[in-house]
Amino acid sequence: MLTSAETSTFIGRRGEVSAARRLLARGRLLTLTGAGGVGKTRLAMRVAEALGPAYDDGVEIVELASLEDPDLLVPTVATALGVRDAGPSPMSVLVDYLAERRMLLVLDNCEHLLDACAKLVDGLLRGAGRLRVLATSRQILGVAGEQVLVVPSLSVPDPAAAPRDITRSESVRMLADRVARVRPGFTLDRADARVFARLCRRLDGIPLAIELAAGRLASTPVDELERRLDERFEILDAGAGGDGPARHQTMRAAVDWSFDLCTPAERRLWCRLSVFAGGVEVDTAEEVCQGDGIEPGDVFELLAGLVDKSILVAEPHEDGVRYHMLESIRSYGREKLAAGGEEEALRRRFCDHYHRLVTERRVDRLVPEQLARYRELVAELANIRVALDLSYAQPEDCPCGLDMVAAMWGYWILAGSMTEGRHWLDRGLDLVPPDSRARRTGLWAAATLALYQGDRAEAEDMLEEAQRLAREAGDDETRAFATQVSAMVAFSEGDSRSGMTLMEKARAAHVDRGDLSALGINLYYDASFSAELDPERAAELAQEFLTLCEKRRAEPSRGYALFAVGITAWHQGNPERAEAMLKEAMAIRKAINDRWGLAECVEVLAWIAGSYGRYERAARMLGVAHALWQAMGASPATFWPHQRDHRNCVARTREALGQRAYTAAFRGGERLGLDRAMPYMVGE
Questions:
Q1: Which of 24, 36, 220, 628 gives the lowest tally of CB atoms within 10 Å of its CB?
Q2: pTM
């Protein structure tokens, strides 16, 4: 997520950047600490940018401010790194993935997840000997070997100094730069230099406080701004016994002052927007934040006013503008919201909005906007997490929360976030009544994710309960889906005949209910899993699924259908058709970063290359696939649909090339990386 710090000019900090680089060269963990608003994130981003070329496997940045549940820290970091948590232990998968990588991992805003971050960092550093970690936090992590760099305020000049010396100071340069953004054509002259120096001194050189002050200079003369700020700090100084505010008191006073200078409607909107952990777009703000002094038609102008005052950051994207708050500003708004007594009404509107969004924007539906739905859920995930926490905190809303998570089962798989999906499902299943529809749906959804992670025993237990509850309630939908997942269990146990029978039973139920989306999912699983045993039957199912996806213009599902057609063509002895289908499927799966789907495509393309006698190409593509499988904690050698063909390809390729040449080509593929490998894999 972008912040105002990332979208504006970086001022000063040469000494701190140099110090951070030296410390990271000397040790494997560096924590940047300091008060809120002092610029830790900006400094971390600049250090990461400077050090990027030094790390063979790059720099990865994970922003944690919007994450509130420590149980989701590991899967969140794994997802950010492109590590799909296919195994039951995402921490083990993450360590294995990073074990041989020379990488810098930046963890930004750790203070509210301190214990979880400390445990994560300690485990990663112990298991991944070439990894270095740069963290930002208001408190140190307390991990062995941790080095700490306290981030100071920007340098502040003496107001009595010569104007040219004043204009060279970091804080004045920053203030002048930010004023120029809100007052085009502004240049700092000698007359204003001393006033700017006094302002920066009053603000202790704290970057966020300077940002807030600059936002007022669009409409307030600098001397008037200084007077108002002095009045605010005089009140604070009196309360502090005349000793002058400490840095955190300065920041608090600056935010208080900005809050007081907002209009009553702007203050209300500031407080209400603080519930959005992941930012918000105009239409959502109009729906959720209206009422009691705010009309929907007023929201856009109020948002613009808060942007002008540096309270909000407007982030343009292809579909419009998304508005974010820096974490210090958001925390302040949440505090004011709690004191204002309107939390309950806002909570209800917020939860209702996200329940409606999730259930109406399901990605397991064969619709033309399927890809747009997926991207929308990605953008809204932080807010969905807030809605789930709020729902689970109220007994009467727990079924609503579980209903949301179960409706996202397809999203959790596409995003490679099975661990997070199971986390929310398990929480909900512990809270809802046993006779609720939400529990029945949640059980089969949880069983699906458990099976993807290889937790077959738990999946079978949940399916048994789901079937029993569905029979008692006469719930045909749950019975159909539970039967379908039971078919997947049978396939995974090697009982393909039973798997096909159960799939056909579920398919008939989907047809009876007129659920074409569920039918499509069934066709995919049946075709993919039965291709080796009965390729002709599987090919018919795969083609039916592809026709359905194309008719309904569901592009992500079409990527799955193309893979199903490709794998069945391979088993039919038609490698040319298989290769064409798989290359087309890869392009679609790459668009949504579907690592599991990409690994499967690369794996089968390696088999095809081997069948043509292109053994060096096959070995290289096996290496690319291995890196993808490793990132998911999975292996084609143990994943039952691919076991036999994978072993055959490896054996033939190693024999044809010899061990040394095979290993060289394989490792070359491992190091290639997906982005660089894509042109190679789809070309000749």
A1: 220
A2: 0.87
